[in-house]
Design brief:
The chain is mostly helical. Helix content is about 60%, strand content about 0%. GO terms for molecular function: mRNA binding; single-stranded RNA binding. This is Protein high chlorophyll fluorescent 107.
Length: about 650
């Protein structure tokens, strides 16, 4: 039963009351007393539908908000306030007067809103982070994160992976929002071939940083690329560029992946995007320059190498790559200048000393090449490649016994370095020691029989068996080499010439035809260059003329040295290749003094390089000598104790 009653805003709720028939039987009105919640002063007179109930002993009037969704009743029009059946508030006094059967769980809350807030407050601890339990005194300062990361890096460098992992796990516990511990831990696990654990760490890091850290995405992509998951690696590189489009390493890594897959046009597009969003970067310029050099566009490559060294003059890799380009073009004077720039940029770089030494040795400067290789070995005593090249140099210009000593020392430094065993076997074959050469080749293949070094080893072994008269063994070795690397031109032509020498001209022609049928050629499109120039600088017309595709790819030798920053353009003296090979031992044409440089930067005495080569004990790590010292101390202590006991007796 509903009664409509108009109530003005000026009327007080205490003045409003209704009386039930039980209180006044003679009254014709059916009414009851209802306390009313105060209404807002700005409300106009409203019509209140009242709902009477028999069991409402202490009713309450409740205003239902329009935005509430906790009630189950249909929503009334906005101009009406619905008075529902009031719910009794639970108090301790009500237990004495009311029966236990009438008490319901819903009576503990005065309204659905309060009940919803109570449920929401119960769920709040679930959304608190785990570190909220740590007080400000228990959580370390942020500077400890940098110190811990550096300590973990030093431990990983010393192959103490367990201690490094423990430190990084603590860093993740205290600073889960920082991405550096995830990257460092993933790399350490990757070095130990724990790919599944590394993947889990990267995934956890992406979730903790909400996918906004591009370094974690990039490292994860590199891991998947090493495992052979190319499609997954592409997606992760894409995620890294989405997280931060200025992250140049992601663009460059993605481009290198596409280059290995043969997608040259896609790789160029990615490198151009890296330059567009990230600005100048020596790695991108260097990769583009190598692509241009491979496509025989040498002037474009020189310009890009110049840009790479301009953005980072300390980039030894850029100087070396540029020097190798000039070596291929037989610009020996320019290449020597670039090698000098490379060692000045990184005095302890083993690649710089090695490539420069081999370059001088190939030009006939045996003393200069030997000196450079010895300097590189003095700076990097644990590198077997320098000793391998020095051994081949000594075999060519000195004796085989000295070469054997150097090969043996290189194999002791790194027993799993395949090129050392292959070069040693080749030397023994040249000396006529066929059994020793076979043993060296077997040692190389026992390390890994699926690499390109293994393919070269099988090809060299096949030539050995061919010269020894084992024709069937030679054929099997050639076939095995091509199963590993089917693109080796030398192996195909060696096998064809072998068959031709045996009188099988038809078989030799079939082998040559097989090579031309199965080889893969990468067609490079040069139409990207003009669009790429718009990214670098659209206002430089001189650069556009420099990168004109219609010009000839062969240029004069003196022009290439003008692109080198800091090169002496007025130097017109004869180079070492013109008849004076030892003229640049101490000072080059540009004023670079090699002896003074190694004295100042490397603290090496040029006259003692041979002495350092003859004392291999200097290359032994200190941790090997430590037990000997301990034994000596124990021996001296035992001697002193025995002497004391004898004196007492």
């Amino acid at each position: 039963m509903h009664l409509k009653l108009k109530l003005s805003s000026s009327s007080s709720p205490s003045n409003f009351s209704l009386y039930s028939p039980s209180q006044n039987p003679s009254s014709s009105k059916i009414s009851f007393k209802v306390p009313i919640v105060p209404l807002h002063s700005s409300l106009s007179p409203l019509t209140l539908p009242l709902c009477a109930s028999k069991d409402s002993s202490s009713p309450l009037l409740e205003q239902k908000p329009h935005s509430s969704s906790f009630g189950s009743e249909p929503q009334s029009p906005p101009e009406l306030l619905t008075v529902r059946r009031p719910m009794k508030e639970y108090t301790g006094d009500d237990d004495e007067s009311s029966d236990g059967d009438d008490v319901d769980e819903d009576t503990f809350s005065s309204s659905p809103i309060d009940a919803g807030l109570a449920e929401f407050s119960k769920k709040l601890p679930m959304f608190e982070p785990q570190r909220a339990e740590l007080s400000s005194e228990e959580r370390p300062l942020l500077v400890n994160l940098d110190l811990a990361l550096y300590r973990a890096k030093v431990l990983a460098r010393n192959y103490q992976f367990e201690e490094a992992e423990e430190i990084l796990q603590k860093c993740i516990y205290y600073w889960p929002e920082d991405g550096r511990p995830y990257v460092a831990l993933g790399k350490i696990l990757g070095k130990q071939s724990k790919t599944s654990e590394a993947r889990a760490v990267y995934e956890k890091g992406c979730q903790a940083t909400q996918g906004e850290n591009p370094y974690i995405w990039q490292c994860w992509a590199v891991l998947e690329n090493k495992m052979g998951n190319i499609r997954r690696a592409r997606d992760l590189f894409d995620a890294a560029t989405v997280a931060d489009k200025r992250h140049v390493a992601a663009w460059h890594g993605w481009a290198v992946l596409e280059l290995k897959q043969g997608n040259i046009k896609k790789a160029r597009h990615l490198l151009a995007k890296g330059l567009k969003y990230g600005g100048g970067n020596e790695y991108i310029y260097q990769t583009l320059a190598l692509l241009e050099a491979k496509a025989n566009r040498h002037e474009q490559a020189r310009y890009l190498f110049k840009q790479a060294t301009k953005y980072n003059p300390k980039s030894c890799a850029s100087w070396l790559a540029w020097a190798q380009l000039e070596m291929q073009q037989e610009n020996n004077h320019t290449a020597r200048q670039l090698f000098e720039k490379a060692v000045q940029a990184s005095p302890k770089n083993r690649f710089a000393w090695h490539v420069w030494g081999v370059f001088e040795a190939n030009l006939g400067n045996a003393d200069k090449g030997r000196k450079l290789l010895k300097i590189g070995h003095a700076v990097n005593p644990r590198d077997p490649v320098l000793l391998q090249s020095l051994a081949l140099l000594e075999y060519k210009y000195s004796t085989a016994n000295l070469s054997r000593v150097l090969f043996r020392r290189a194999s002791e430094l790194d027993p799993r370095h395949q090129p050392v065993w292959i070069a040693w076997g080749w030397m023994e074959w040249k000396e006529g020691n066929i059994a020793t050469a076979r043993e060296m080749y077997q040692r190389a293949l026992s390390i890994d029989s699926t690499t390109e070094s293994a393919a070269r080893c099988l090809q060299a072994w096949g030539v050995l068996e061919q010269r020894a008269g084992n024709l069937s063994a030679a054929r099997r070795l050639f076939r095995s080499s091509l199963n590993i690397n089917s693109q080796s031109y030398i192996t195909w032509m060696t096998w064809a010439s072998f068959e031709e020498n045996q009188g099988n001209a038809v078989r030799a022609e079939e082998i040559r035809d097989l090579y031309f049928q199965q080889r893969t050629e990468v067609v490079d499109d040069a139409s990207w260059v003009m669009g790429f120039l718009d990214i670098i600088d659209p206002a430089l017309d001189s650069i556009k003329r420099l990168l004109n595709l219609d010009q000839n790819s062969h240029y004069r030798i003196p022009d290439s040295s003008r692109n080198i920053p800091g090169a002496n353009e007025d130097s017109s003296g004869p180079g070492p290749s013109s008849g004076n090979p030892d003229s640049n031992d101490t000072a080059s044409e540009n004023g670079f003094n090699l002896d003074a440089f190694i004295r100042e930067k490397l603290s090496l005495d040029p006259s003692n390089l041979d002495v350092q080569m003859q004392t291999p004990e200097t290359t032994v790590p200190r941790r090997v000598k430590l037990p000997r010292r301990i034994r000596r101390l124990e021996n001296t202590q035992s001697r002193t104790t025995t002497a004391v006991t004898q004196s007492r007796v």
